[in-house]
């Protein structure tokens, strides 16, 4: 379409010129005493156009000749800039491919070329960012080479080229340098130093996923479990981990806090500091209840913490892993001496609802034993002793059956029960 329009335009111009010049009878007379020179108007127009074109070409050529040195200098500068950028790209490529000596050498080459450009009077709009990135690559390569002194020197120079009050791009580079430096410090097993570097970040940058990951590792290494737990919660909200992984990390950190409690008051504070969804985790509830019992806490409080896990096991017998269910039974058994009527009713109702579960039968039998309901206790313990998979519970059931038999005066049954209890321990 464009070619057709140009062709039509040329035809129109040709027609206009033909109409103007074909019948143009005008003349131009030049008087140069004593001479008189007559020119046709068409000739004068052609001479004027030709003269204009000639003068324009002459001035353009003269300008090109005069600007040759400046163009040559600009070309040389462009070549140096291209070599500098190529060296920086080579440094990055070598760093990514694990050739750290070559990477550092290429980064230093880029810095040397940039210094030469600056000395020649050439100024780059992004010179500071380029120097900061080159120093960063050199520092990262030095870290991989275990050259800490060189790493710290290049890091210092990189931070100088990316001031905190610089433009947004320089601020982003500085934040990235600080995060990377924190990671290097963590690799050196200096958790406190890594946390100090992270503390120097602006508030927004400190809440980014990368910074939180580093903070989580540093806090765990430093033993700051409270801080690590808070960081793990934030990472979970940011979907930095899968749901299962986030729960596992939070659960492990919360368990460390629980086990680290030295008295019941501290344990209560830790428990109340957990989020509701965390207190509802059976693993944590059982862990906290066991720790409370070890510290001599109130049995009623122990059972209150165990109630969600107990209800879950009763409603869905396979919901709790076998190890957790056994811990729950152990924790409840430890406080059976002070068992109230409400919990006794819960245990009996659970046993009646699932009579094939030997753990429930064992708990019901032990509860009846504490209440001196000898016949019912013997029935439940006999049923449980023959089905329990845990050797400790089996031995306990047979031992109590032996004591009941001795109490009845049945020496043969007592001897048989004591024998079974000894076999379980063996």
Automatic annotation (TrEMBL):
InterPro entries: Heme_biosyn_assoc_TPR_pro (IPR005254), HemY_N (IPR010817), TPR-like_helical_dom_sf (IPR011990). Keywords: Cell inner membrane, Cell membrane, Membrane, Porphyrin biosynthesis, Transmembrane, Transmembrane helix. Pathway: Porphyrin-containing compound metabolism; protoheme biosynthesis. Residues 26-128 form the HemY N-terminal domain. It comes from Paenacidovorax caeni. One of its GO terms (biological process) is heme metabolic process. The keyword Transcription does not apply. The lineage of its organism: Bacteria, Pseudomonadati, Pseudomonadota, Betaproteobacteria, Burkholderiales. It holds the Pfam family HemY_N. This is HemY protein. It is found in: Cell inner membrane. Involved in a late step of protoheme IX synthesis. GO terms for cellular component: plasma membrane.
């Amino acid at each position: 379409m464009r070619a057709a329009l140009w062709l039509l335009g040329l035809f129109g111009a040709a027609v206009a010129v033909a109409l103007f010049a074909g019948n143009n009878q005008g003349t131009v007379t030049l008087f140069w005493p004593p001479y008189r020179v007559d020119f046709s108007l068409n000739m004068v127009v052609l001479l004027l156009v030709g003269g204009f074109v000639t003068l324009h070409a002459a001035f353009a050529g003269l300008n090109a000749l005069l600007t040759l040195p400046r163009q040559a200098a600009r070309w040389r500068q462009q070549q140096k800039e291209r070599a500098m950028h190529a060296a920086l790209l080579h440094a990055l490529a070598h760093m990514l491919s694990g050739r750290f000596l070559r990477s550092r050498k290429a980064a230093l080459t880029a810095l040397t070329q940039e210094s030469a450009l600056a000395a020649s009077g050439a100024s780059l709009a992004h010179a500071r960012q380029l120097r900061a990135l080159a120093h960063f690559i050199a520092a990262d390569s030095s870290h991989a080479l275990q050259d800490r002194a060189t790493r710290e020197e290049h890091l210092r120079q990189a931070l100088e080229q990316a001031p905190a009050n610089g433009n947004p791009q320089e601020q982003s580079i500085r934040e990235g340098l600080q995060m990377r430096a924190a990671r290097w410090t963590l690799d050196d097993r200096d958790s406190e130093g890594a946390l100090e570097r992270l503390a120097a970040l602006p508030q927004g940058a400190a809440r980014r996923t990368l910074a939180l990951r580093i903070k989580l590792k540093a806090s765990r290494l430093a033993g700051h479990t409270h801080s690590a737990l808070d960081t793990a919660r934030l990472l979970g909200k940011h979907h930095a981990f899968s749901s299962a992984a986030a729960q596992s990390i939070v659960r492990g950190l919360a368990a460390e806090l629980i086990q680290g409690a030295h008295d019941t008051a501290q344990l209560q504070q830790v428990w109340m500091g957990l989020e509701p969804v965390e207190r509802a985790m059976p693993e944590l509830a059982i862990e906290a209840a066991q720790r409370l019992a070890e510290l001599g806490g109130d049995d009623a409080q122990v059972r209150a913490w165990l109630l969600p896990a107990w209800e879950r096991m009763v409603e869905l017998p396979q919901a709790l892993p076998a190890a957790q269910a056994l811990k729950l039974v152990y924790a409840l058994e430890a406080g059976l001496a002070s068992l109230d009527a409400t919990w006794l009713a819960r245990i009996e109702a659970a046993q009646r609802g699932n009579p094939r579960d030997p753990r429930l039968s064992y708990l019901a039998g032990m509860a009846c034993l504490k209440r001196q309901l000898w016949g019912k206790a013997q029935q439940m313990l006999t049923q449980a002793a023959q089905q329990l998979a845990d050797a400790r519970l089996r031995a306990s059931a047979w031992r109590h059956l032996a004591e009941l038999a001795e109490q009845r005066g049945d020496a043969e049954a007592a001897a048989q029960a004591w024998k079974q209890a000894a076999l379980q321990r063996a």
